[in-house]
Amino acid sequence: MLENHTIVRLNAEFFEKHKEHTEILSKPKRPHLVLVVQIESLTFAIPFRTSAHHPKHGKVSHCFFFSNSGRQKLSKDGRIPALDFSKAVIVTEEDIGKLAMIDHAEFMELQDNMKNIEVKFKSFLNFYLESVKTETNLDNPIIKYSALQYFKDKLFSINFD
User: How far is residue 55 CA from its own chain's centroid?
Assistant: First the structure.
C-alpha cells in the first residue's frame, strides 16, 4: 500500500508507458523525485523541481516554493526549488520505484507545510478542471502544458471539494 506523503522515484515502466506524453517530466540521466499525495481515490505524484519560477500573473499558484532549500544556490537565474503541481501525474502502486531523500531543509519545510501543500494542490486541481470544463484559460501555460491532460478521464471521475 502506498503511503501518503512518501517521497519516491517513479520507475522506468511508468516512463515507458507514457513515453508519448511530452509534458510528463522525465529525467533519464538523473533522479526524478516525486511526492505521493492521495486525494479521494486517486494517487498523485507531484514532482520536485530544482528551478521553478513564480508565475507572472494569476491567483492560483502551480507550485509550492521552498524558502529554505539548500538547492537555491544551484540556480543562476533566481529560480526556486518547488513542488510543481502542473506536472503532477496520477500513479498506481506499480508505477512507484525506490524511496528517495531530499535536502534536509526542504524535508523539514515539507513536513511543516503538508496540509498547506494539499490545500494548494487541491486548489490547483479545481482550477485545472474548471478551466478544461469551461474551456477557459486553455492558453495559460500552467493549463496548456500540464501533465494532467493525460489523466482527464480519471480526474473528471471524482469530486475534489
Answer: 15
First and final CA of the chain: distance in angstroms?
Answer: 24
pLDDT digits (tens, 9 = 90+) for 122-144: 999 999 999 999 999 999 999 99
List, for residues 71-87, the tens digit of each pLDDT value: 555 555 556 788 999 99
Angle between helices 114-134 and 104-112 (to 10 degrees): 70
Contact 63, 83 (CB under 8 A): yes
SS (H, E, C) the chain: CCCCCCEEEECHHHHHHCCCCCCCCCCCCCCCEEEEEEECCEEEEEEEEEEECCCCCCCCCCEEECCCCCCHHHCCCCCEEEEEHHHCEEECHHHEEEECCCCHHHHHHHHHCHHHHHHHHHHHHHHHHHHHHHCCCCCCHHHHCCHHHHHHHHHHCCCCC
Round to whole Å and give the CA distance between 64 and 84: 7
